[in-house]
Amino acid sequence: MKRKQQVLIAGLAALGLLAGACSSDSESSVTEAPVVTDAPGVTEAPTVTDAPNADGDLVQWALDYTEGTAGMASGDSIKIGYVNQEDYFPENTIGINAAVEFINNELGGAAGRPLEIVPCNIAVAEDGAKCGTEFANNADIAAVVTGTILVGNKELYDALNTKKPVIIGNGVTSDDFTTAAGSAFTAGSPGVVAGMAGFVVSQLGDVKNVAIIAGNNAAGIAGADLLFKPVIEKAGIAYTFVGVDDTATAADVASAMTAVGADTADVVVLIVTLQQCINVYDASKALGIDPVIVATGLCFGTPMTDHLAEAGDGGTVPNNWYFGGYGYSYFQPDYESGMQTYLDKVQKYGVPAPGAANLEYTGFAGPSFANIMTLTKFFNQLGPDALDYAGIDGKIRGFKGPMMIVAGPLDCGKQVILGLPIFISVCGSQMGIQQYKDGEWLSIADALNGKPIDATKV
């Protein structure tokens, strides 16, 4: 078991790097990388102003969630340390800053005081220790929130552990899920991929064989071997596997699909980069096949939407494909989870990333917005005179939900996924499956239809 845990941790680290391989916003001037998203990266949010969810109701939802008081904040600011890999994940910062503006201008601040973000950017691994040490030694920093980081994670958490309360924003590496320094209010990559496998086994009918197409690298192989295959093997489902290089062409992918038997498989599963998702779509057309496809959120993104338009096919993503995500959708915005409130306020207060023509409100922006809202809830519960390490850390680790725009109850540090109790920072266990069909998003197994998949029960 120990050896299996070590291999899984190494695989998850590689799987995290897979999240850095494709674009989340084709119009940004920063170096681009993918994010695991709940919905594609388009730039126009669905309307959320239909009755009864007018702006006043959306603000009231936020007041109820944060336990705040309507109005503007005043007094000395409460400083929150914020760490992000800005070159790759600028949408985190869009969500963070929009939440702060909303809270300070309409929700009375946190514990009656305005929030102030103190940013620290990570570009190289050494920056993790630098940011962590700076925040750990700054008595004015009440808590630290991360965005998404690919390098320097361990060094950051080591510096902050027992020094500052930490909310892990959108983790994608092994250290994000196995650190004792803080908590993450989602199921993360382990929950999403394992949940996809559970969906294939239990909700797609009589599946006898699955074709798995993954990146021909440590990340793709780890996702297939360690997080997907064990579930379908236990169910007695046969599978074939093929790896494709990140530089593969559509013709290369067509050959790989033929080799893996995509034309006869009951289901084709994709654990590949966005560009290879595009190539799978093109290869399927060239081969004249229309397989049932279940993909990760890596297949979302503006490049996919643009490619479909250029091909004359239209749509946001390929028709009939299934996608694994966090259980709620930017494109099926509901009131109860706070998604409508988020969409309204990020459009009001969000600022496009430097050099970007449009606001990227999808990707990790929503969960980051929700993390600041939730931290504000904790500050309000504690009051201005009790914002110490023990109080805030206790609120974070003891939070049971519901969490804004995240499916299911939370149980921080107690989630056992695939029989492994190593994910000590993970609080969530539920994920969702949605399908894009004939121009509409359908809830197949998610929080919107009351049927989310619990990865701990797969």
TrEMBL record:
Residues 31-53 are annotated as: Disordered. It holds the Pfam family Peripla_BP_6. The keyword Signal applies. Residues 90-349 form the Leucine-binding protein domain. SUPFAM superfamilies: Periplasmic binding protein-like I (SSF53822). The keyword RNA-binding does not apply. InterPro entries: Leu-bd (IPR028081), Peripla_BP_I (IPR028082). Keywords: Signal. This is Unannotated protein. It comes from freshwater metagenome.
